[in-house]
Amino acid sequence: MTLAQTLDELVTANRILAREGVVDSFGHVSIRHPDRPERYLLSRARAPECIEADDLLEFALDGTPIDPAGRTPYAERFIHGAVYHARPDVRAVVHHHSPSVIPFGVTGAPLSPVMHMCAGIGARVPTWDSRTRFGDTNLLVTNAAMAADLAAALGERPVILMRGHGCVVAGASLREVIFNSIYLQLNADLQMKAHPLGPVTFLSDGEVAAVLRTRGAFTYERAWEFWCRRAGRPYQARPMEGPHH
Amino acid sequence: MTLAQTLDELVTANRILAREGVVDSFGHVSIRHPDRPERYLLSRARAPECIEADDLLEFALDGTPIDPAGRTPYAERFIHGAVYHARPDVRAVVHHHSPSVIPFGVTGAPLSPVMHMCAGIGARVPTWDSRTRFGDTNLLVTNAAMAADLAAALGERPVILMRGHGCVVAGASLREVIFNSIYLQLNADLQMKAHPLGPVTFLSDGEVAAVLRTRGAFTYERAWEFWCRRAGRPYQARPMEGPHH
Amino acid sequence: MTLAQTLDELVTANRILAREGVVDSFGHVSIRHPDRPERYLLSRARAPECIEADDLLEFALDGTPIDPAGRTPYAERFIHGAVYHARPDVRAVVHHHSPSVIPFGVTGAPLSPVMHMCAGIGARVPTWDSRTRFGDTNLLVTNAAMAADLAAALGERPVILMRGHGCVVAGASLREVIFNSIYLQLNADLQMKAHPLGPVTFLSDGEVAAVLRTRGAFTYERAWEFWCRRAGRPYQARPMEGPHH
Amino acid sequence: MTLAQTLDELVTANRILAREGVVDSFGHVSIRHPDRPERYLLSRARAPECIEADDLLEFALDGTPIDPAGRTPYAERFIHGAVYHARPDVRAVVHHHSPSVIPFGVTGAPLSPVMHMCAGIGARVPTWDSRTRFGDTNLLVTNAAMAADLAAALGERPVILMRGHGCVVAGASLREVIFNSIYLQLNADLQMKAHPLGPVTFLSDGEVAAVLRTRGAFTYERAWEFWCRRAGRPYQARPMEGPHH
Question: Can you tell me the distance from the alpha carbon of D96 to that of D167, in angstroms, rounded to the nearest whole number?
Fold first, then answer.
């Protein structure tokens, strides 16, 4: 895949997150540069629904834009660099404020998979609170210290919540982080619906492990085609393997 | 009706389930082959919203694709074959993950009709748990043993829930299973809305029986025309009888 | 206004109820014949979203279609005739199954105005249960006896719920019953949202009376123009008076 | 910016509020006249989704339309004049009935920011009850006395709820009041979702202050571009400064 195609898929990822209600005017998605692992690609500061290929910038892991040409970067781009620095396995990162996710961060209610499609969020999603180490702030992760603290709390996990703010989703591919962002939102919705009905049976750790062990690119691909259709974006097929349920 | 028309209606059924939010990228609907009752028709592994007539495959009841021509089948197709094998009366099957249905499967809250339109889900919807006999799995019904166990739990009923996964809806016609899939979703929504307000008066067994006794093809037909309109699909009228409320 | 224009507005009313989610494939709206008060106008049995002018039929108050010409009437048309017979003041009737209304009918939770726009539903909405006098039925009001019992329970009120089925909304004009059907749905939604937050302060009887005393055609007109726009239907202005908030 | 451009943005603001579900057929948004601070600009009485530039009128702070030319003003325009009179800092006012906001006004449940984006609603949103001083009314603020009482209760705050009616949002710019109206709705939704999950951690007063201290026009601008896109309205960029998260 050419870099132009890669950038086009990053635009599509932004549009998908907007179409699915995961992001509104805020939130962002990045990918590690396919050729320069010490760089990442992220839009200038703009609503995901409005992003075009020309809005995409290359950044050093410390958040320095390589060729801004007058384009203003996101103040919270540090989140992305810190995760790429701490996690060589990560090739895509989403930061979003899904309205389904916020309630868990502000109540401490446990967020865990209730459905096989949602196993990618991890057996138990932790919450990071900026106030713990940084006190009263505007909650924005706008410097390397806050971003490093957040990335350390994320550890090896796929998802972490941010109290009163949103969450971070990290993964091995753009399709994977978009998939887990949308199914994180769904899992949160499912838990909020199930909660009043009675005690919830979550997936067992063994079931979560079994889902992740058997999940292949095919699953992400089927969803990606569907979300491209809904977002009005062209779909580029990828070579696939793995189970197809 | 020609086989081409039958396949076109199966495409429409997929699009309706997607438009009504019953399925997302996953879930599938099949029909028993009109001429060969030991065969069923089901799409290749693809999101229902994206399915075209060329995606539809013929399968033996054991899940063997007759002429795949390189098209990848759903890993969970075994659900369909097992139900057709166990239930000669069944001519259409839906497997879906409606977000309204999942909360009942993971809490064990009783799911029963609260409204006449929803009587087709049966007086009480049971739940099947893959863990009971198969332990920690990825929850996918990807073999004959799991599918047969699920079909046995369904028994003569129209609907069964699958804990942490979704449900199966079986019926005598494609219009009937689409109707009951959508009104299953609605009934689940209605129960979740009603639950906090106080003890719910469900339809009595006598009322459920009276609705089913007097329900004719006309009811399914009126809804089918509406759902075709919403899904942007052409509507083919069917001969009709029965009450029209 | 010509009869053709009146029929066109009845088509629009059906489309508005569908667009606003008050009706799905079922539910119906009628008007008393402008020239023959012993007759009413109602569609043949069809989903409101699909109705065209040619679907509209004239009925005697006993439910006899005047000139069906092969068009099948709604089995529940008796509801309309019974209300027109019992209420000379009524010139329009809606029967619908809004998913927001059903939870109140099946729990007996009180349904009363929480907001000025919703005062038209009346200070307290009663519930009629077909089982009380007619035992286990399919819940459909398909004969004169059930319809008369329902109309008697409605009395002089604008709205009555039907347990496990839906509701009836009656009023002095088509715009009024559409307005009160949509704000009945909203009030039900508002009560379900407010209920978990704490004891609800409903409008006082004096406030309900004050709203109704000061509500004029202008209020219905402003909403009608908006709903026509949303439903993709042409808007025909009506002469107006009354307060404009 | 020319007055014509200013009026065009006021039309856009109306369409945005309708598109985002903050207003239905009712509710209104005004701006202080850019050249004559003792005047404000507000539409004639019409649903926000239907408003065109020709519907916009100029009013004296006492609610007198300057050149109505047969156009009927909103009966509740007095709300706007009273706030502009009491608050020289205010340059835009919204009155709306968001279905998410009503439940807080009728239960007295505390409404406070749970998320950084929502800090603009103020640390604690008060509720005004027309009945306290004016007894049983139709709840409409249709005279100077009620409007002045409401404006006094608002005080220096950005938002006040009106029991059984809606709310008022006041601010220094059109973009700011639209932003705070939409995030007020979101915050209310978030609190209703979080409430059943457990005690909610709201933003601290220090966090609310920090967000407001660091929020610049850039934040409103990014959202305005997104909402213009969603509402199908042309976007006019404004000069920007401040943090970009």
Answer: 6
Q: How many CB pairs under 8 A join A and B?
A: 116
A76 assigned to active site: yes
DSSP secondary structure code for residue B22 in this structure = S
In terms of DSSP bridges, do strands B159-162 and C28-32 run parallel, antiparallel, or are they unpaired? unpaired
State the DSSP string of A117-157. Answer: GGGGG-SS--EE-HHHHH-S--S---SHHHHHHHHHHHTT-
Based on its alpha-carbon atoms, the radius of gyration of chain B, rounded to whole angstroms, reads 17
CB contact under 8 A, C109 and B201: no
Compute the distance between CA of residue D23 and CA of residue D95 in angstroms, rounded to an integer.
Answer: 9
- Rounded to an integer, what distance in angstroms lies between the CA atom of residue A105 and that of residue D206? 19
For residue B88, give both structure tokens.
């000669």
Q: B28, B95, B102: best mutation site toward chain A, by most A Cβ within 10 Å?
A: B102
d(CA D83, CA C73): 55
Query: CA of A82: how far to CAs of A30, A36, A141, C196, C239, in Å?
Result: 12, 16, 11, 41, 65
- The rounded Cα C235 to chain-centroid distance in angstroms is 20
Q: How many CB atoms lie within 10 A of CB D211?
A: 25
Distance CA D171, CA D84 (A): 10
Number of Cβ within 10 Å of residue D180's Cβ equals 25
* CB atoms B226 and C50 under 8 Å: yes
B230: number of Cβ within 10 Å? 16
Contact: C198, D107; criterion CB under 8 Å: yes
Q: Which of C38, C49, C58, C76 is catalytic?
A: C76
Among B159, B171, B168, B23, residue whose Cα is nearest residue B98: B23
What ipTM was assigned to the predicted interfaces of this complex?
0.96
Q: How many CB atoms lie within 10 A of CB B223?
A: 21
Strand partners, D168: D95, D160
The tokens 């089913």 sit on which residue?
Answer: B212
Q: What are the structure tokens assigned to C206, written together?
A: 């004096």
How far D84 CA lies from chain A's nearest CA (Å)?
Answer: 29
How far is residue A224's CA from residue B223's CA, in Å, rounded to a whole number? 30
CB contact B107 to A (< 8 Å): yes
Which of C156, C134, C139 has its CA nearest to residue C105? C139
Question: pLDDT (tens digit, 0 to 9) for every residue of chain D, 245 residues total?
Answer: 899 999 999 999 999 999 999 999 999 999 999 999 999 999 999 999 999 999 999 999 999 999 999 999 999 999 999 999 999 999 999 999 999 999 999 999 999 999 999 999 999 999 999 999 999 999 999 999 999 999 999 999 999 999 999 999 999 999 999 999 999 999 999 999 999 999 999 999 999 999 999 998 999 999 999 999 999 999 999 865 445 55
Q: Find, in chain B, the residue whose alpha carbon is nearest to that of A227.
A: B25
Q: Provide the shortest C-alpha distance from residue A52 to chain B (in Å).
A: 25
| Segment 4-63 of chain C within 8 Å of chain D by CB | none
Show residues of chain D in contact with A108, CB under 8 Å: 198, 201
CA dihedral B210, B214, B215, B218 (to 10 degrees): -160
Active site residues of B: 76
Among all residues of chain A, which has the CA nearest to that of D199? A107
Check B107 against A198: CB less than 8 A apart: yes
D139 touches chain C (CB under 8 A): yes
| Residue keyed to tokens 């939870």 | C103
CA distance B93 to C147: 38
- Rounded-to-integer distance, Cα A244 and Cα B7, Å: 22
User: How many Cβ contacts (< 8 angstroms) between chains A and D?
Assistant: 116
Cβ B92 vs Cβ B165: under 8 Å: no
CB contact under 8 A, A190 and B99: yes
Q: D107 and C201: CB-CB below 8 Å? A: yes
Q: Given an 8 Å threshold on Cβ–Cβ distance, is B226 in contact with C49?
A: yes
